[in-house]
Amino acid sequence: MEKATKSMLREMAERYETADFINGDPSWFMHQVTGNGNQETIAFLASVLSYGRRDLFLPKIQQFLDWSGNEPLRWVLDGAYRDNVPDDTRSFYRLYNNHMMRALLDALHDILSDNGSIGGFIRQRTPEHRAVEALEVLSQFFYSRGIKGMVPSPHSSVAKRPCMFLRWMVRDGSPVDLGLWADFIDKRTLFIPMDTHVLQEARAIGLIGGKTASWNTVVRLTEALREVFPDDPVRGDFALFGYGVNKDK
């Protein structure tokens, strides 16, 4: 990678990884509650719903805070979500109907009841402290409960939303990401959350080739960003965002 490209990416990351980044971003919700358990819980639910148009999914995430009175952990543990999300086939958000969301919340309830927190669940099942373990554990658990597509698996998909959730939970020293799991998942093992925008910007810079997004593409882009941010490759997420904002300037 050319020196100028590395310099530009570092500059963009420095400029855009600020507290202002959370405005209009789904990460905003985890900064509206207090306590690690509340932050984990709303961050996970926000990651599940974060696809499509922001003006449509952000209000749906806000519903969780409204229903729970900004106490999403207790809302799930007490089963209060059953009063808000009926077990029927009416639409909840886009591809998700109420039955699917209810099943997801039931599964999350069991994780929290048995482990105290999502982090407690992951900590026990990631002996190598690698992000890929956490991604696999989460996707396999929800799949085993008959929940398909809501917590996608790595290897068979780009797993953009789970990768974003892990970024929020693992990266420390950030005004955006929380770093709640920094002591048991190594941030050097995180993967870039890939969507169409990230793929387009990465191709425009020449970090990767090809037009098709796959898990292999995620791995290759993360490896490219590791050349720039060796101890924190997913900081490149902010760099690519900044590049997209500034490229026409």
- H/E series: HHHHEEHHHHHHH
Q: Averaging pLDDT over every residue, what do you get?
A: 96
**What separation lies between the terminal Cα atoms?**
23 Å
Instruction: Characterize the quaternary organization of these chains.
Output: single chain
Structural class: mainly alpha
Largest sheet: 2 strands, antiparallel
| Secondary structure tally, helices | 11
Amount of beta strand = under 5%
The coarse overall form would be globular
Q: How many DSSP E strands?
A: 2
Low-confidence spans: none
**C-alpha Rg (nearest Å):** 18 Å
- Spatial order of the strands in the main sheet? 1-2
| Residues in helices, as a percent range | 40-55%
Labels describing this entry:
single chain; 249 residues; mainly alpha; two-stranded antiparallel sheet; 11 helices; 2 strands; 53% helix; globular
Descriptive report:
The mean pLDDT is 96. 53% of the residues lie in helices and 2% in strands. By secondary structure, it is mainly alpha-helical. The protein has helices at residues 3-16, 36-49, 54-68, 72-77, 98-115, 118-123, 131-144, 160-170, 196-205, 215-226, 236-246; strands spanning 91-93, 96-97. Helix 1 (3-16) packs across helix 11, helix 2 (36-49) packs antiparallel against helix 3 and helix 2 runs antiparallel to helix 8 (160-170). The chain is globular. It has a two-stranded antiparallel sheet with strand order 1-2. It is built from eleven helices and two strands; from the N terminus they run H-H-H-H-E-E-H-H-H-H-H-H-H.
Write the layout of secondary structure elements.
Layout: H1 3-16, H2 36-49, H3 54-68, H4 72-77, E1 91-93, E2 96-97, H5 98-115, H6 118-123, H7 131-144, H8 160-170, H9 196-205, H10 215-226, H11 236-246
Antiparallel strand pairs: 1-2
